[in-house]
Amino acid sequence: MLKGRERELAYLNKEYQSGSDRLLVVYGQKDVGKTALLSAFTEDKTAFYYQAEEGSERQQLYLLGRQLQRLGSSLPVYPTYEEVFQCLDQKLLVIDEFQYLLKAGDGFVQALDAFFQNKNGSCMVLLCSSSISFVENHMVAKLGKLAHKLTGFLKLRELQLWDVAAYFPDYSWEDCIKVYSILGGLPGLWQAFDPYVPVTENICRVLLAPGGRLREEGAHIVSRQLRECGVYFSILGALAQGKNKLNELYQHTGFSRAKISVYLKNLMELELVEKVFSLDTPGRDNQRKAVYRISHPLVRFWFCFLYADSSLLLRITPEAYYEQLVKPALALYCESCFSKVCQEYMQREAAEHKLPIEITDFGSFVGKAGSIDYIGHNETGQYIAAFADYRDPVFPYEKYLQAKALTGQAGIRPDYMYLFSGHGFDAKLEALEKELDTLILIRMDDL
C-alpha cells in the first residue's frame, strides 16, 4: 500500500470519478515519489502510460509510435501526433516528463487540444513532470490556448519525519533524524538505504564508498539541471560553509553581487536553495536580513561533507572518513533539520486544531542574537513561540531563559511556548512544565 500519499491518491481518484474531462498537471522534484503515486493510481484502471525522453519532435514520434506498436497498434515508423492520439482510446492517459514533448515542438500541444475537441466520452489526461522550474515558469507559455483547459495542479511535496520512521521501523528517532537530514522527505532516495543495517553503515556504504549509489548524486542533481557548474558549485560550497548572506557570498566567491543574485534565483527556481525571511513582528529592527540556505538535503550533504574534501576520501576508507569528518559535525548538521521538524509538527497540530490557539499566520524569526524556530499568531494578537534543540544532551534551563529573551527581541510576548528536544529536558524544565500550563515540552516520542 502506498504510504504518505493518501491525500494525493484520494484527490486523483476523485478527479477520475468526476465523469467529465480532466486535464491535470502532477509534478514534484525527482525522487519525491511521483512514479509510485502514479503506479498506485493506475493499478486498477485501464491506462496508457508513457514516459518521454529528451529528443527532437521526430524522435519523440518515433518513440511514441514504437511503444504503441508493441501494444498492438498499427502505425508507421514515424507517425504524426494525430495518428498517435487516434490509437489512444483509453479513459486515462498519463504522460510523464511531458516537458520534453513541449520543448521538442508545438505538435504535441496542438494534437492534444484536437484530441479533447474530437474524442468520444470523458477522458482524464495527467501531464506529469519532475521539472519544477519548467512547470512553474515556462509551461503555460508552451501550452498556449490549451492552458485554459487545465482543471487542476497537484504538486508533490516532500514527505515528513514520521514517514521516514514508518519506512525505517527499526531505526531510533535519532537515526530517523539523521536519515531525514541527509535524504529529506524523498522516498526515491530512501530506497538506497538498507533499513536492516545501521544508519552509519548506510552512510559509509551508499554516500562515502567509491561506487556508492548516492556517492555523486548530490553533485549530479545540480549538474543535470544547470550549466556553468563552476559558478553554481562555488556558491553552493560557500553556502555549505555557512556564508549565507549576499555580501558573504560576494566576499568568498569574488563574483559580483548582481551575478550571485541571478544564480541564486536559478537555484531557488529549482528548489535547491531557499531564501529565509522572518515573520513580520514588532521587533523587526532585531531581525537579520534575508539569508540563503541549501534546501535540497542530499545536495546539502554533498557540499557540506564531500565537495571540499573529496581528495581525502580517495586516500582513506569510508569508515575512517566518517569518523574523522562526518561524525563530529553530524549533530550540528542535523540541527537545522530538527528545526524543520519542529515547524512541521506545529503546522500539523495547527491544521488539526490541536494547538491552544487557532493560528492565522506563522513563520520563523531570524534574529541578530538567535532564531525562533516557529512563531504562530491569531487575529487577536495571541502568540505561540517554539524552539528546537538537537545538539545538547538535554534542553538546559539556561537555553529556555535565552529563548524568552529572544521573544522579547522579536517584540512579542508569547501566550504559549513549545520546546523541542532531540534528547530530553533538564530536571528544572521538567518541573516547570508541571507548574505552567503555558509551557509545553515536546520529546522525540511525541513526534
Q: What is the terminal-to-terminal distance?
A: 23 Å
How many H/I helices? Answer: 21
How is the main sheet built?
Answer: 5 strands, parallel
Q: Round the Cα radius of gyration to an integer and report it.
A: 25 Å
> Which regions contain 5 or more consecutive residues with pLDDT less than 50?
none
Main structural class: alpha/beta
Helix content estimate: 40-55%
Please give the order of strands in the largest beta sheet. Answer: 2-3-4-1-5
Strand percent estimate? 5-15%
Please state the average pLDDT score.
94
Number of strands: 12
Molecular shape: globular
Describe the structure.
- Helices cover about 45% and strands about 15% of the residues.
- The protein contains 21 helices and 12 strands.
- The strands form 3 sheets. Strands 2-3-4-1-5 form a 5-stranded parallel β-sheet, with helices on one face.
- β9 and β10 form a beta hairpin.
- The longest helix has about 35 residues, at about 320-350.
Comma- or semicolon-separated keywords:
globular; 21 helices; five-stranded mixed β-sheet; single chain; 447 residues; five-stranded parallel β-sheet; alpha/beta
Brief summary:
The protein is 47% helix and 14% strand. The chain contains 21 helices and twelve strands.
Question: How do the helices and strands line up, and which of them pair or pack?
Answer:
Layout: H1 6-16, E1 22-27, H2 34-42, E2 47-51, H3 57-70, H4 81-86, E3 92-96, H5 99-104, H6 107-118, E4 124-129, H7 132-137, H8 139-143, E5 152-155, H9 161-167, H10 173-183, H11 187-190, H12 199-208, H13 217-223, H14 229-240, H15 246-253, H16 257-269, E6 273-276, E7 291-294, H17 297-305, H18 310-313, H19 318-351, E8 361-366, E9 371-377, E10 383-389, H20 397-409, E11 416-421, H21 427-435, E12 439-442
